[in-house]
Design brief:
6 helices; 8 strands; 230 residues; eight-stranded mixed sheet; single chain; globular; alpha+beta
Length: 230
């Protein structure tokens, strides 16, 4: 299994800078290599992905939006407005260039099946990022998102030299909680009224993994989720 590396080199964990810089091609798409697992490919979304993104987000609207922040009043809807989706892609591209975030579409068998993001990358003494994800309802429970999380962990710890990743989930969102629990991420407890979701300040269970834990568990996680079946 071969994974191409992103442009640039990861900084030392105690470096204050933003990490690797990723340029853009002539069409404005991010010039970063895709990340590969056993079944999934992760790559930044571009404007060309709008039809596929719109289809899955519309089809799974009721299943997804109950767990997501409400759109600001008057803000354009990227599921119906191509320009709004383009602005969303451009914002993710700027985050990559600054090293403050890395967003990826999750592809399986050539189809967009969800997204996974490293959000709010913080350097200095923290070296932390927050992981967010969603998956197409039609393929939920098939292990695609746990696999994507392992691919993202490898990228975050081995390419970006981060020290810690955090996943926060509403306690009653059992489908989303199964992902960090399947991976054995550490439960750090529940943060009361942690994020405003769908108009309500919701508690969140916080799961985390550090670089030391990744080193200890990397072989087992990769063998379980990334290695070709025997």
């Amino acid at each position: 299994m071969r994974r191409e590396r992103t442009a640039g080199r990861p900084r030392s964990p105690d470096a204050g800078g933003p990490g690797p810089s990723i340029g853009t091609g002539p069409d404005g798409a991010a010039r970063s290599s895709a990340l590969f697992g056993r079944r999934v490919m992760l790559r930044p979304l571009t404007l060309a992905d709008f039809p596929a993104w719109r289809e899955v987000r519309r089809r799974c609207h009721d299943w997804l939006t109950v767990w997501e922040p409400s759109r600001q009043p008057g803000a354009p809807d990227p599921t119906t407005d191509r320009d709004a989706f383009g602005v969303r892609c451009a914002a993710r591209q700027r985050e990559r260039a600054l090293g403050t975030g890395h967003g990826f579409g999750v592809f399986h068998e050539g189809h967009l099946r969800g997204e996974i993001n490293l959000n709010t990358v913080q350097r200095g003494p923290f070296q932390n990022a927050y992981v967010g994800y969603w998956i197409d309802e039609s393929v939920a429970g098939q292990g695609l998102m746990p696999e994507a999380v392992v691919v993202l962990c490898r990228f975050a710890f081995e390419e970006l030299a981060l020290h810690r990743l955090q996943v926060s989930v509403i306690p009653r969102n059992s489908a989303s909680r199964r992902i960090p629990e399947k991976l054995g991420l550490r439960d750090e407890g529940t943060a009361a009224r942690y994020l405003e979701i769908n108009g309500v300040w919701e508690d969140h269970v916080r799961y985390a993994v550090t670089a030391e834990e990744w080193i200890d568990r990397r072989n087992d996680l990769e063998a379980t989720w990334l290695a070709p079946p025997a």
